Amino acid sequence: MIRKHKFLVAYILVLAVFTTYVALDTFVITRVYDGAGVQTSAREEKAGAGSSGTGADEGAAEPVITSDSYKDGNISVEIKEYTAEDTAVYAAEVSLASPEYLKTALAQGLYGKNVTEETSQIAADNNAILAINGDYYGTREKGYVIKNGELYRDTADSGRKDLVIYEDGSFGIISEDEVTAEQLLADGAVNTLSFGPALVENGNVTVGENEEVSKAMSSNPRTAIGIKADGTYLFVTADGRTEESEGLSLYELADFMKELGAVTAYNLDGGGSSTMVFNGSVVNNPTGGRAGHGEGTERSVSDIVYIGY
Amino acid sequence: MYTSDTDRLKCRGLYYLIASMTVAAAGGVYESFSHGVRSNYMIFAFLIPLLAGAVPNLLAALAGNKKRADRGSTAAAGLQLAGVATLTAGSLLNGALEIYGTTNRLMTAYPVMGLALLAAALAAYALRGRRVSAAPSEQG
Fold it and tell me: Is residue B70 part of a domain?
């Protein structure tokens, strides 16, 4: 029987091997890309040419730290827990003396595919005061990646809108169809977050009630970042997928961000990735493990957004 | 093993039907653990063995035409099975990737290879059918 169908059996074996390879290539095999950023922003060039460090912590007073707040001469963080739509939501309001304290970091300090670490580990590696998971750029092969002024990926993802953090600390929402990554750098972009969608623009909710990320249904753990009119930053995570906390739809998240006063807000990678870390401790209840096994465990991600020196 | 070519087609059709139900069950189980993230590639993967395997084989068997039944040559059936397997595996994997929110450039190999194999199977069936049709008239 096998001899009669030997070509078919051989083909099925090849198909199985190829499928296994594709699965490993997607989820397991680590690829670190050399040559870090292909281009550098003006701010990074200035920092590189200047004296050691940014001088950012020179004026910092001795910090006053509590379980839900941090304050020194440059950075002020205050975390509050809310309940919205049967969901535990953690919102950090951040005031900075300079936008250079708002940073991003890559897992293991490396840019690549399947290069991941837990948000709390990346935060610890970078002495972050406050951190949330980022856009998980490593799961996609397209979409701009600019981190701390370094351009890592300039391949546009058609239809995707990014949050751009400029060197003056302001936020902007751009479409990758309309502007190149190089142009963004020239315009002063320091970081891009390429996930989405944008939740609030010019103070108005910009997602529909039934809009969702890709194929996701409503009520999931969420992570979002926003900025208020006075320049205060908002870092938000919402728990979900548990009996205690249902999770938010994108519309509910957008509405929440608007209620907090956001004039611009953007949805980051959510689900099991949603994690907020403050002073070395995880604030929320991540569900990063596999279904049914992940409550209280962090998912390893590609990158974080954080506040720190 | 088979009493006739019609029985062979019925048997193949039932195998594809079982495969289709298995794929539907696998997709359903995967979807139930995906926290509500849906992928049509995962949900509708069962249609591939159903429409490209079970339906044509069972229709050919039900037609009961000896000439049509004779078209089920081993080579053509093998190509058909390889094509259906490739498209189904690609659909399931693409569904898994979509649910996870990721992509892989190698995924394009599945539809290209799968459709090429199905086209080759169709050509093989057509050639076989032409030969079978031609044979009686030459004798007659």
Answer: yes
Q: By CA distance, what is B76's nearest residue in A?
A: A8
**Closest-CA residue of chain A to B36:** A217
In 3-state terms, chain B is what percent helix, strand and coil (to 5)?
Answer: 80, 0, 20
**Most A CBs within 10 Å, among B35, B103, B117, to test the A interface:** B35
The domains of chain A are located at 1-32, 35-307
**B26 assigned to some structural domain:** yes
Look at the block and give the residue holding tokens 């200035």: A46
pLDDT band of residue A82 (cuts 50, 70, 90) is very high
The answer to the question of residue B116 being in a domain is: yes
Judge whether B99 is closer than 8 Å to chain A, CB to CB. yes
pLDDT in tens, A111-148: 999 999 999 999 999 999 999 999 999 998 899 999 99
Residues whose CB falls within 8 Å of the CB of residue A37, separated by 6 or more in sequence, listed in order: A147, A149, A150, A151, A152
Q: Which residue of A26, A218, A248 to mutate against B (max B Cβ within 10 Å)?
A: A26
- In chain B, the number of structural domains is 1
Domain range spanning residue B119?
Answer: 5-126
Confidence of residue A296 (pLDDT cuts 50, 70, 90): low
